Amino acid sequence: MSGSTGARDGGDRHGLAGWFRFPRPRAALLASVVLALEALVLVALAVRGIVSLVHPQGDGSVPVAVALVVCAGLAAWVLLAGAWAIGLGRSWVRGIASTVQILGLLVAVSFFQGGLVALPSAIAVVSAAGLVGLFAPSVVEFTRREGSPFDED
Predict the structure, then answer these.
(1) What are 30's strand-pairing partners?
(2) Could you read off the pLDDT of 35-89 as tens digits, one per residue?
(3) Where exactly are the transmembrane stretches of this chain (predicted)?
(4) Helix (H, G, I), strand (E, B) or coil at 19
(5) Which of 21, 64, 97, 126 is most buried, taking the most CB atoms under 10 A from its CB?
(6) Which of the four pLDDT bands, split at 50, 70 and 90, describes residue 7?
């Protein structure tokens, strides 16, 4: 199989234009959008952390702030890679993405116990939508492994 030809559609799956032309179930698109939105939130938090490092207010710990910015940036990168991969039908992404969604639900429960309502409700709804998208039968079929994981890449 050539490097740019996909097994499922026979066409170019690489690049932005190929990703948008690649046929996928609506639930896979939902899961991709949820992962991408979560990644954008993490990017915003990382940018906010960078701004707070440049313009410190209070007695914040610089090493902790740097670590949080780096972690948020890496997590955003992983989620964006997952959004891309679920849209292409890769099987490896379901494990990573479902773990993130379950952690999101746990964070929401923690916030609920702390007395907050709006933020944990939003987190819970987004995480639940991500799980529904990831485990919809059409997505499970779309992302099932058809042989060696190295066949298509």
Answers:
(1) none
(2) 999 999 999 989 988 988 888 777 778 888 899 899 999 999 999 999 999 988 8
(3) 27-50, 62-85, 92-112, 118-140
(4) helix
(5) 97
(6) very low
Going from N- to C-terminal start, the domains of the chain cover 26-142
Contact (CB, 8 A) for 24 and 16: no
What's the rounded Cα separation, in Å, for the pair 123 and 45? 15
Q: Kindly write down the DSSP assignment for every residue of 101-113, as one continuous string.
A: HHHHHHHHHHHHH
Reference 125, options 112, 115, 138; nearest CA is 112
pLDDT tens figures, 80-118: 999 999 988 888 899 999 999 999 999 999 999 999 999
CA distance 58 to 147: 55
